[in-house]
Structure formats: structure tokens, C-alpha cells
Design brief:
The complex is a heterodimer of chains A (about 725) and B (about 325). With about 725 residues, chain A is of the alpha+beta class. Chain A is about 25% helix and about 25% strand. Chain B starts with a strand and ends with a helix. The mean pLDDT of chain B is about 95. Bound molecules: flavin-adenine dinucleotide and iron/sulfur cluster. Iron/sulfur cluster binds next to loops of chain B. Chain A: Pfam families: Ald_Xan_dh_C, MoCoBD_1, MoCoBD_2. Chain A: InterPro entries: Ald_Oxase/Xan_DH_a/b, Ald_Oxase/Xan_DH_a/b_sf, Ald_Oxase/xanthine_DH-like, AldOxase/xan_DH_MoCoBD1, AldOxase/xan_DH_MoCoBD2, AldOxase/xan_DH_Mopterin-bd_sf, PaoC-like. Chain A: This is Xanthine dehydrogenase family protein molybdopterin-binding subunit. Chain A: One of its GO terms (molecular function) is oxidoreductase activity.
Chain lengths: ~725, ~325
């Protein structure tokens, strides 16, 4: 089915099941430990052996030699695969770094060997016995600030160069020129990358943990030079991804290579200390932002120059991305400098580009508002735009950013905020308030599903869509229940299997909108099939309470399917109107209150509010979970998360969860989420968009602005740890 | 993790004798530090002597009016003990500021004192580290050293001792009691228990390889107000950037020790004489001669400020 024009009134508008705050249907499995995650699928393949990886000890150079004799002789070892046994394996473009094979080392902890043994302990012990001799490149660069400095005069093709930024900025009445930095961030998802691999001839099955089943199937075809049909992936439960499981990764490749070598099933997980440097991270950024405005607060010029690290072929973290479309301003100069730095692969992490970009831009907006002597809420309202500033011929399909700000200001009681930085005190604590805007595109991707009515009257949905903890199972079940007129309990959803129709997968916050639209399309196809059987016009059919009703008659779905399941399959494809005529996006406003200890600088977030404009909300409970999780991640980015770079050795030093701190419960206070009522008919037949990435956008800047408001000390270098402003706190006796 | 042999000791002296009998033997108590380090092959004992069956898990009053804490008393139980909460609040507060509930349920008094540094380079076996592999160098210096020591370190090693419990015990003048393979016992003031790295950062305490900790003794209660203020990058479950253990008397005199700044609990009785002159005066004496790195020089200011906050709280 093609989605070529805005959605009209349709079956999904009934909103009997959709739109309801229903608990996750996979919740009981997860809370009782019954949901099988990749590494725990002991039953799927017989006689599983265990693989343990070895990572490179250098960041750039080549392997001179590897001595595996001792490892080979170690108890329980069945086989070893080393990178020297093969040429560098081909990769697809989604991956920036190569995953395995050859002598060349591109980054620290690059996978260079896998030891297979009877037990995990034996494999790990043997892996430690492999001796590697390296030759290190002396010309490698690991210092983003230094490389940026050297290359600032490079001619870079701007992302947007509209009007005449330099003159408009030079003649603006009020200006800001400030540089912000964001560190590398680690996805730090709970479940590590893990795969069980088993070959049958030249057919491979992978039980794995992956957000994008079809992308990875295609990547496997490239890497192993076999037809895509030879690969099956199965990934029904995923313990978090945030982008780090979008692509085929070394766990799957090593498990597959190992299984081929030993002729048995092999399971392998990336050990936590390897995951930060072996996989991907959100790239570091250095962002220079210049804003010019009139005395009245109208932005006339906006410049955003982002520098970020990448290995050859990647984009890094493009901080200028959200600036393209967020605020009005006729003169715009936006640049992304993806600089080659030999740190591990920087790649997508939750709201890639927007997250780091808004961490900077939304502090800049706060600084501008202060210079103008304006309420930062008001300043943002004045600079709202209903057309895409980067393509003024395009309208935003729906944009209610102003309502987000106004509603938030009212609910948060913004009027009673601390107005003069550093002036409100409660005992030992300084109290501050901050606001920030949120922007994230609302893409949609082709998505398919297969839906059946089964003889017992239940509905089964099959799609390779994944649930990375987001609630896909539940909203897909809700969609099918709504469309087929049954209760949620009789819908059975099977996800993450490459034998099912190809879906949009989980990424870019397109998953919920796209996959439910795909299920909608398949349900329409099924309804049509049923209509044909009954020889009636599909429009005349009404599905409700497990019955099909037409012309005063009714038939139970179970009766219709008594002779065998009735199955239909379809896929939704999104027409160009969606992106050519309109810009689809989601918006939000974050309000935060913090307390900062006036003497020690300890920061405690006290209250958080998010107001989101994201089209129709398919399930307010799962959507809220997405947003509060993202707000939590935003607090982490604001206050503590930072991959520490060793610029001599070229790696992230704090590569475990003791060193890379993410928020704990004690860091997270009251969180309130409000979704504006609304629907976006330009988005999908269900009029829905995503919220999972919107939720993190802008959060960190709201925290940063609140810390500034509390203390009067502006920190432009994330994370905002106390050492960065201690000397600007009130004097001690 | 390397393969190892394992035995359960029957008595403290037997445990010590077992350690003397085999090179590379180590005691295992809660295992919360040792097992992690074994998995990463930072510790590679050839033989483990499990001491969990030895009893030593009670807290008893001493004739001198203090408490004898068995080496195997768990951190959770120690923190919750009525007498500790009433008379040694600084210890109870330090304990609950450490690790997590689950870890404290396993962690023991003896093991806590002997936990090893959290220097990130110590944890990465690809990196040079004089503590882990003597003579290889120190990757932390010139690298990422935000968490590391500002005082007491050497050119060879600037790791900190990460224990919270030990900082409080130092303020309380605790004494460590041990037994060896011959059955000889000794009592070591905590002040003398941990060693500065000098040229031998891998030797962290005065314990002989076969010496087993049986108890930690707290002298009579000090009275006064007890504080443990631990500053870190998140609200819980993180090691200290700086911590201050303090016992403050009504007349303004008192004792303080710092955590997070040195290879051992950092206290200097002479600096305490400056208490009436305020935090800055105390810290400037206590941290005299500090040699912080660019990454961690903020700890000097932070120590001053944290003590200021504690003194302000003491004044009420
Ligand atoms: C994630 C995490 C977070 C943590 N956070 C903190 C924190 O914030 N603050 C803090 O203070 N600590 C923290 N810890 C450390 C924790 O307190 C220690 O791991 C624990 O106290 C060690 O005690 P244990 O009994 O488990 O020691 P074990 O691991 O069993 O032993 C540690 C060492 O002591 C030796 N040993 C044990 N008992 C004796 C004895 N009786 N005589 C002689 N030698 C002995 C062992 O041989 C070994 O070398 C954390 C640990 C983890 C894993
Ligand atoms: S500071 Fe000490 S523990 Fe850290 S790397 Fe240097 S020698 Fe090793």
C-alpha cells in the first residue's frame, strides 16, 4: 500500500484500543525473566560452544604476528579464529570501521581473534594467552580539538548557506559567539552485543540482538559473499540498543566465523570492557554557534559550525542538524566538519546529531535571551517558524512548538522561577530553573507485516520489526486489535525474525510510526480477503468484538477461519509528498529545576517536565516510558556521561560501567510528561510520529541552563561536573 | 581468569598457614573485589583460601569501651549495628555511602580495607601500570587522571585507595588485628596499615603474605558530631572525588580525614590543630606539598569546600 496523500478518516481512528494507556504485553515475560535474550537461548541450537573475543591493544597500525600456541593448548579449547587467517572482510556502508580480518588495525579493541571452548571460563582464560606483536602508526591523531584547530581554514561545503550570514551577523544589534563541546557518549545499553551462530551448509542462522534485521541480513550477505536468502536472523528481545545495534557488529561476525571453523553452534557476547571501544559511540563535538538578533529578539543570522570525529567514511555527530529547521532567521550558515580521528567508530546514538546539537544550540538560545533581557520562553516563541527555514517552500505538516512552551510554562509555574542567576537560596542549596526546546525529524520508512486470523479467532502478526524495549510489541498488537475488532488479549505478535516481512526496524525514531502503518496495511489486506470470502464490499464490513458484521449478519472470526488461518501480507510505502511538500518533525519543551550545593557544587535535579508534540500518541503509557527514559539519558549527558579520551593511546579509558557513569535512581527526581493532543495526517495512516528520540533532545541544555540559573556560572563544556564551576561559586570563608 | 585451586579454612591460623604454604595463595572473603580482578587477570592467584566459614562475623564490646569488629562482618551489618550507629556515626555513614546494597551485603570488613585501586589504567591490561605489573610504567600520568591522587603518590604511581570505610576508621583511630601462620598476632594502627607507593606501588599494606586480618578494633567513642560527606559525579554508586570524614566537638575542635585524594586515608593530626581557624587553614596543612595533575587539581579546592560545608553543618 502506498501512502501518497494525507490520511483521511479511517478504521484506526476508532481509538478503542489504540491511544489507550495499556501495559506492555511483553512486560510479564521481562519482569519474570522469561523473555529469552540472545545469549540465553540455550535451546535453539544443540551443543553450543562458547566464543570469547580478543581486542586489539593498539589504536592504529598493524599486527606483525600472533602467537596462539599456548591458547590452543589451553584446557577446553576447540578452535581459534584469528584475523590473520583471512583478508579484511567486506562491509556495507552503514558500518564505518571494518569488523574483522586482515592485519590492519583501525581502532582500539578492534576484534582480532576469537577463541572457542567448551565453557565460557575456558574460552576466556585461553583468550588471555594469545600474544600479539604490533607495529603502531606514529602519525595517528586522537585529539579532536587539535585537529579542528589545524583544519578550521579548510573549505567545507556548508549544509545550508542561505542569505548572507556574515554580513547579517556583523550588522545585528545583539550577537552571541560561543563555542560548546560535547564529549563522546557510550550507549551503555544493558544487554551487551550477543549472538549464537549455527551453519547448515552455506546457510547461517543467527540468534542475536539487533535493531535492524534486514540491514544486517544484507550486511551478512556482503561480508560472507553469499546470497541474503542464506541468512536468518532472529532477535525477538533486545535489552536496549540506542543505535549501537543498528548494524551488523563484530559479535555476529565472530560467532559466524567461529561456528564455521569448529562446525558447531557458537555463542559469543562482547565483554563489557570491550564494548565502548569495539562498537560505536556518539561522536565528540566542538560547536561554534553565532546568533545575531534585533533588539526585539528576532533572529536575523544563525551560524553553526560543528566539528566531530570519525573514521574514514563516516559523518560523526552532526551537531548542526537540528539548527537547519528549528528556528527562524533569514541568514544561515551551517557547517559540519567530520574530521578523521583514529578513535573508534562514531556512529548513531539516540537522536544522532540533534542530541549533541541541541545540547549546544539550546544553551546558546538561553545566552541570547539573557543578552536581550528576555524570558527564554518568549525568545523561543518569537523565533518559531511554520516553514522549514532550510527550504522555505515547505510547510511543517504540524508544528506546535509554541504550545509546548506555553503549556510547559504554565504547568511548571515558570512565572515563579528564579529570575536573577545565583540569587535563590534554600539553606545550603542554590536553586535554578532552565528551559530548552526539543526538535527531532519524524521520518518514516517502508514497513511490512503479515497478519492472520487463526481458527481459534486469535490474530497473529508477524514482522521483522524489533522491540528494543520501546513497546513495539504492544503498539503493534494494539493496531491489529483495533483494525480487526478484537481485544488485545487475543493478538499474538511475533517480531524480529528475518523470515517475516521486512519492516522499518527500530532506528531514527521511525519504528513506531512506520511499523504500525505496515500492520495497518496488512490488516486492510486481510479485511479485503475476508470481504472477498464473504462476497461483500470491504467497506460494508464492520469488525468488532471478534465478529465481522455486514448487512445485519454477523460471523465470528473463529468461524471464518475454522477451516484454516486466513493470512494477508502487505507493506506500507511512503510517498514523496511526505518529504517534498512538507517537513515532518516532532517538537517539545523541557523545564528543569535543579539545586546546586553552594559550597561543594554538587548538583541535584529536583523536577523535570517535558511537553511533547508528536502527533497521535499510540499508547500514552509506553510513550511516556520512552520519554522519561530519554530524559534520564539527557540528565546523564548533562551531568556525568563522558567517554574519557586518552589522546596518546587513542582510546576511551573509562570503558566499563564503573568508569562510564550513567544516572542512578538517586539522580532522577519527579518526571512529568505531557503529550499535546493532536494527530498528523501527513505522517502515516495512523497519524502518528515517534517520541523515543524527541525525548532526549534538548533535555541536557535545560539542565545546563538551570545550573547556570542557580549559580550564575555558565559551563559550555559537557558534562557539567562540579570541577568546571567550583571556582565560580560563592566565596568560602 | 586463570585456573586455581580452592580450600575452605577451618580457623584463622589455619587460613594463615594455608597462605604461607603456597605461593600465590590469596584469601577470599566477599569476593566483590577479588573476583572482578581475577576475571580481568589483574589478580591471578594460584590458590584461594575461602575464609567465609570462619565465623569472625560478630561485633563485640571491648574491655576498653570500644568495639571489636570481626573481619567477616559484612558492610551492611556493620553499618546497621545499633552501637555503631549511635557511637560511631561517621563509620555507619561512610559505609552506606559506598558501593550498592547488594555489594555491601557481601563485602566484608577485612576485604574492604584491602580493596584495590580504581585507577582505570590498572584495569586495562594493555596499559602500562607499575602497580599491576611492576616496572612497566604508569600510563595514568599524562593520561586521564581525574580520579587519581593529589598527594602521597610518587612518580611511579598516583593511584588512590578507594575505600570509604577506611576513611572513617582512620578518623576513629581504628586498629587492625592479625594472625600469621605461626599463630603470632599483632595490632596495627590503621594509620600505619596502608603504605604509600614509593617505588613499590604493588605493595599496599604492611601485611605479610601469610598474615590474616581477624578484626578491626574501634577505641572508646569520641562523642561529638559525626559526618561523612562524599562528593561524586552522581548521587550514588560512585567512588569519591573527595570525601571528608569528620568528628567535630562542641568546642570546635575535631578530627578529619580525607578520601579520594591519596593512596591511603589521608589524615594529619597536626592539621587538626587548625580547626578553629576554619577549613582553609586545615586543608592547607593537610594537603601541604600536594602535586595534583591538570585533571585533578580541582580536588584541592573541593576538599576545602567540602570541609567548609561540613563545618557549616556542624555549626547548625
Ligand atoms: C561496582 C562496585 C562499586 C563499589 N563502590 C564502592 C564505593 O563507593 N566505596 C567503597 O569503599 N567501596 C566500593 N566498592 C568496593 C567494595 O567495598 C569492596 O569490593 C569490598 O569491600 C571488598 O570486600 P570483600 O569482602 O568482597 O573482599 P574480597 O574481594 O573477598 O577480597 C579483597 C582482598 O582482600 C583480601 N582479604 C579479604 N579478607 C581478608 C582478611 N580477613 N585478611 C586478609 N586479607 C583479606 C583478599 O585476599 C583480597 O585480596 C565497590 C565495589 C564494586 C564492585
Ligand atoms: S597510577 Fe598507579 S595504578 Fe594507575 S596506572 Fe599508574 S601505576 Fe598503575
Amino acid at each position: 500500500m502506498r501512502f501518497d496523500s494525507p490520511a483521511e478518516q479511517n478504521v484506526s481512528d476508532r481509538m478503542k484500543v489504540l491511544g489507550q494507556p495499556l501495559r506492555r504485553i511483553d512486560g510479564p515475560l521481562k519482569t519474570t525473566g522469561m523473555a529469552p535474550y540472545a545469549y540465553e537461548r540455550h535451546g535453539v541450537a544443540k551443543d553450543q560452544l562458547v566464543g570469547y573475543p580478543v581486542g586489539s591493544a593498539i589504536a592504529k597500525g598493524r599486527i606483525v604476528s600472533m602467537d596462539i600456541d599456548e591458547a590452543q593448548a589451553s584446557p577446553g579449547v576447540v578452535g581459534i579464529v584469528t584475523t590473520l587467517e583471512m583478508e579484511r572482510l567486506p562491509k556495507v556502508d552503514w558500518n564505518v570501521a571494518y569488523l574483522f580480518g586482515g592485519r590492519e588495525i583501525q581502532h582500539y579493541h578492534q576484534a582480532i581473534a576469537v577463541v572457542v571452548a567448551n565453557s565460557f571460563e575456558e574460552a576466556r582464560a585461553a583468550a588471555a594467552l594469545i600474544r600479539v606483536e604490533y607495529e603502531e602508526d606514529q602519525d595517528a591523531t586522537y585529539d579532536l580539538a587539535a585537529v579542528r584547530q589545524e583544519r578550521l581554514s579548510d573549505d567545507v561545503e556548508p549544509i545550508d548557506n542561505i542569505g548572507d550570514f556574515e554580513s547579517a551577523y556583523a550588522s545585528a544589534e545583539v550577537t552571541l559567539d560561543a563555542t560548546y563541546t560535547t564529549p563522546g557518549q557510550c550507549h551503555a545499553q544493558m544487554e551487551p552485543h550477543a549472538t549464537i551462530a549455527q551453519w547448515d551448509g552455506d546457510h547461517l542462522t543467527l540468534w542475536t540482538s539487533n535493531q535492524m534485521i534486514e540491514w544486517s541480513r544484507q550486511a551478512l550477505a556482503t561480508t560472507f559473499d553469499l546470497p541474503a536468502e542464506n541468512f536468518r536472523l532472529d532477535s525477538p528481545y533486545i535489552g536496549g540498543g540506542f543505535g549501537v545495534k543498528l548494524f551488523l557488529r563484530a559479535d555476529a561476525v565472530m560467532a559466524a566465523l567461529a561456528a564455521r571453523k569448529v562446525g558447531r553452534a557458537v555463542k559469543l557476547a562482547l565483554p563489557r570492557p570491550m564494548s565502548a571501544n569495539n562498537t560505536t559511540h556518539r561522536g565528540l563535538t566542538i560547536q561554534r554557534i553565532r546568533i545575531g538578533a534585533s533588539q526585539e529578539g528576532k533572529i536575523t543570522a544563525i551560524g553553526h559550525d560543528n566539528a566531530t570525529n570519525t573514521l574514514p567514511g563516516g559523518d560523526g555527530e552532526n551537531g548542526a542538524r537540528a539548527t537547519r529547521r528549528f528556528y527562524a532567521g533569514e541568514n544561515r550558515l551551517l557547517i559540519n566538519r567530520a574530521l578523521e580521528i583514529h578513535l573508534p567508530e562514531s556512529n548513531a546514538m539516540r537522536a544522532p546529531g540533534e542530541t549533541a546539537g541541541l545540547m549546544a544550540l539550546e544553551i546558546a538560545m538561553d545566552e541570547m535571551a539573557e543578552k536581550l533581557g528576555m524570558d527564554p520562553v518568549e525568545f523561543r516563541i518569537i523565533n518559531d517558524t511554520q516553514v522549514d527555514p532550510s527550504h522555505p517552500e515547505r510547510q511543517f505538516s504540524e508544528r506546535h512548538f509554541i504550545e509546548c512552551l506555553q503549556r510547559g510554562a504554565e504547568v511548571f509555574n515558570w512565572a515563579s522561577r528564579n529570575k536573577a542567576p545565583g540569587s535563590r537560596r534554600e539553606g545550603a542549596w542554590l536553586i535554578g530553573h532552565g528551559v530548552a526546546g526539543a526538535y527531532r525529524d519524524a521520518p518514516a520508512e517502508t514497513s511490512g507485516a503479515r497478519v492472520s486470523v487463526r481458527p481459534d479467532g486469535s490474530i497473529r502478526v508477524e514482522t521483522d520489526m524489533t522491540d528494543i524495549g520501546t513497546g513495539s510489541y504492544t503498539i503493534i498488537a494494539q493496531t491489529a486489535a483495533e483494525m480487526m475488532g478484537v481485544s488485545l488479549e487475543v493478538v499474538n505478535v511475533d517480531l524480529g525474525d528475518s523470515r517475516h516481512p521486512v519492516s522499518a526496524g527500530s532506528g531514527g525514531q521511525w519504528g513506531a510510526a512506520s511499523s504500525t502503518a505496515g500492520v495497518y496495511a496488512a490488516c486492510l489486506a486481510l479485511r479485503k480477503k475476508i470481504a472477498e470470502r464473504l462476497a461483500v464490499d470491504p467497506e460494508a464490513l464492520e469488525f468488532s468484538e471478534g465478529y465481522v458484521r455486514y448487512n445485519d449478519q454477523q460471523t465470528a472470526l473463529s468461524e471464518l477461519a475454522s477451516a484454516g488461518s486466513i493470512t494477508a501480507e502487505d507493506s506500507i510505502e511512503f510517498g514523496d509528498f511526505r518529504s517534498e511538500e512538507y517537513q515532518l518533525a516532532t517538537f517539545g519543551a523541557h523545564f528543569v529545576e535543579v539545586a546546586v550545593h553552594a559550597t561543594t557544587g554538587e548538583i541535584r535535579v529536583r523536577r523535570m517536565l517535558a511537553v511533547c508534540d508528536a502527533g497521535r500518541i499510540l499508547n500514552p503509557m509506553t510513550a511516556r516510558s520512552q520519554v522519561i527514559g530519554a530524559m534520564t539519558m539527557g540528565v546523564g549527558a548533562a551531568l556525568m556521561e563522558s567517554l574519557a579520551v586518552d589522546t596518546r593511546h587513542g582510546f576511551f579509558v573509562n570503558h566499563d560501567l564503573a568508569g562510564y557513569e550513567v544516572p542512578v535512581h538517586a539522580d532522577i527526581p519527579e518526571q512529568q510528561v505531557i503529550f499535546l493532543e493532536g494527530e498528523d495526517p501527513y505522517s502515516t495512516p495512523l497519524k502518528a510520529k515517534g517520541v523515543g528520540e524527541l525525548g532526549i533532545c534538548g533535555v541536557s541544555a535545560a539542565v545546563a541552563n538551570a545550573v547556570y540559573n542557580a549559580t550564575g556560572a555558565r559551563v559550555r563544556d559537557y558534562p557539567i561536573t562540579l570541577d568546571k564551576f567550583l571556582d565560580r561559586l560563592p566565596e568560602i570563608a | 581468569m586463570r585456573a586455581f585451586s580452592y580450600e575452605r579454612a577451618g580457623s584463622p591460623q589455619e587460613a594463615a598457614a594455608a597462605a604461607a604454604a603456597q605461593e600465590g595463595a590469596q584469601f577470599i572473603a566477599g569476593g566483590t573485589n577479588l573476583l572482578d580482578l581475577m576475571k580481568l587477570e589483574i589478580e591471578t592467584p594460584s590458590h584461594l583460601i575461602d575464609v567465609n566459614g570462619l565465623g569472625l562475623d560478630t561485633i563485640e564490646a571491648t574491655a576498653e569501651g570500644g568495639l571489636r569488629i570481626g573481619a567477616l562482618v559484612r558492610n551492611t551489618d556493620l553499618a546497621a549495628d545499633q552501637r555503631v550507629r549511635r557511637d560511631y556515626g561517621v563509620l555507619s555513614r561512610a559505609l552506606v555511602a559506598g558501593a550498592s546494597g547488594q555489594l555491601r551485603n557481601k563485602a566484608t570488613t577485612g576485604g574492604n580495607l584491602l580493596q584495590r585501586t580504581r585507577c582505570p589504567y590498572f584495569y586495562d591490561t594493555n596499559m602500562a601500570c607499575n602497580k599491576r605489573a611492576p616496572g612497566t610504567g604508569c600510563a595514568a600520568q599524562g593520561g586521564y587522571s581525574r580520579q587519581l591522587a593529589i598527594i602521597g603518590g610518587s612518580e611511579v604511581c598516583i593511584a588512590t585507595h578507594p575505600s570509604d570505610m577506611a576513611i572513617a576508621m582512620r578518623v576513629l583511630d581504628a586498629v587492625v588485628e592479625t594472625v600469621n601462620a605461626e599463630g603470632d598476632t599483632r595490632a596495627i594502627p590503621l594509620a600505619d596499615f596502608h603504605l604509600l607507593p614509593g617505588n613499590t606501588p604493588h605493595i599496599e599494606t604492611v601485611l605479610a603474605p601469610d598474615e590474616f586480618i581477624t578484626a578491626v578494633v574501634l577505641p572508646r567513642p569520641l562523642g561529638g558530631q559525626h559526618f561523612y560527606h562524599k562528593v561524586r559525579d552522581r548521587a550514588s554508586y560512585a567512588f569519591a572525588l573527595v570525601s571528608v570524614a569528620a568528628v567535630i566537638q562542641p568546642d570546635g575542635s575535631g578530627r578529619i580525614a580525607l578520601g579520594g585524594v591519596a593512596p591511603k586515608p589521608w589524615r594529619n593530626e597536626a592539621a587538626e590543630a587548625a580547626m578553629p581557624n576554619g577549613a582553609r587553614a586545615v586543608i592547607s596543612r593537610l594537603l601541604e606539598g600536594a602535586t595534583p595533575t591538570e585533571d585533578n587539581k580541582f580536588k584541592v579546592t573541593l576538599a576545602e569546600r567540602t570541609l567548609t560545608a561540613v563545618l557549616a553543618e556542624a555549626r547548625g
